[in-house]
Amino acid sequence: MKFGIHLMPFESTFETLLNDATEAARLGYDSIWMGEAHGSKGSYPSPLIPLTWIAASTKKLTLGTSVMIPPMYHPVRLAEETALLDMISGGRLILGAGLGGTRFRDDYTAYGMEPKGRASRFKEQLEIIRKLWRGETVSHNGNFYTLEGAKLAFTPTQSGGPPIWIGGRTDSGTRLAAAVGDAFLPGPSIPISGLKRFYNIYDAALKTSEKPKERPLMRETTINPTEEESRRDDQLVTEYFTKSYLKAPSVKELHDSDPTKLPANTFIRGDPGECVKRTEFYAKEFNTDHLILRFRFSGMSDENIHMKMRLFAEKVIPSFR
């Protein structure tokens, strides 16, 4: 199993997050991920910029976006920028993409865009981007974009371009992942019951010849030396969860009405032994083979974050290698 870390800015400087990334590399994690959000301190507005800095400071870490929102970009520009990052990093990019998160309507309207039709726009974009990544000269007359002779000067290091993992937490989003993605990337807001539902939809929609190479999953993680310390973290993360994710109707309907059940239903949490059990559960129940962990939350110190990263690397990861 591979293990990654999703970086969230909150009150941190970028130097702090760069330290998180280099510490992750030193500890043997496989990947680093950053999301996209506008008007929120939980993610940067452009993950490709900080990931480029991380690419220059690391040698082996896979670099992932979790997730970018392609409908807010022109497909040629997004193809160019992702191809360039893949080239700079030596072929280490995974493009995690989706239609927008909890505040997606605010994100779109802030840019003067209409959210309606974003799924159709998304599919048209991915078709264009993949052709450009392959080095093709693209002329295209679609519902959203008209191109004449578009071609990339710099193509990705990875043959055919980076893998595209599609995030989603609705039935339609899951089917979209099966239709156009190289993998389905369920986010940390989905409880176990929701994962069962969405994986059933995803697996049924996949063609047998198109099984994904990886089965990723993202989880909030509150590992600590003792159960008591983890319970305190559970409260902090539950507060964040309640103020952000649970405001979205599509997320709220997936969860029990009792917020105290969030940690058991959604997090990897507890002392190292309990975290091993929970990781094992996801591996067996959902065939998870690339687990992306979120350690950093508002109110946690840098020392506390790095302690959690070390504890998970030293006490949990060896059980799965």
Provide the descriptors you would attach to this structure in a database record:
12 helices, TIM Barrel, alpha/beta
Could you tell me the mean pLDDT? 92
- Top-tier CATH class: Alpha Beta
Measured distance between first and last alpha carbons: 7 Å
Structural category = alpha/beta
CATH topology: TIM Barrel
Low-confidence runs (pLDDT<50, min 5 residues)? none
In total, how many beta strands?
11
Order of helical and strand elements: EHEHEHEHHEEEHEHEHHHEHEH
Question: What is the fourth-level CATH superfamily?
Answer: Luciferase-like domain
As a percent range, the share of helical residues equals 40-55%
β-sheet strand percentage:
15-25%
Biggest sheet, strands in spatial order?
8-7-4-3-2-1-11-9-10
Overview of this structure, please?
- β2 (31-34), α2 and β3 (62-65) form a beta-alpha-beta unit.
- The strands form two sheets. Strands 8-7-4-3-2-1-11-9-10 form a nine-stranded parallel sheet. A two-stranded antiparallel ribbon has the order 5-6.
- The mean pLDDT is 92.
- By secondary structure, it is α/β, with parallel strands linked by helices.
- α1 (14-27) crosses α2.
- The radius of gyration is 19 Å and the shape is globular.
- 44% of the residues lie in helices and 16% in strands.
Protein topology:
Blueprint: E1 2-7, H1 14-27, E2 31-34, H2 48-57, E3 62-65, H3 75-88, E4 93-97, H4 104-110, H5 118-133, E5 138-141, E6 146-150, E7 164-167, H6 171-180, E8 183-185, H7 192-205, E9 216-223, H8 227-243, H9 249-252, H10 262-266, E10 268-270, H11 272-286, E11 290-294, H12 302-315
Parallel strand pairs: 1-2, 1-11, 2-3, 3-4, 4-7, 7-8, 9-10, 9-11
Antiparallel strand pairs: 5-6
Helix pairs in contact: 1-2, 1-12, 2-3, 3-5, 6-7
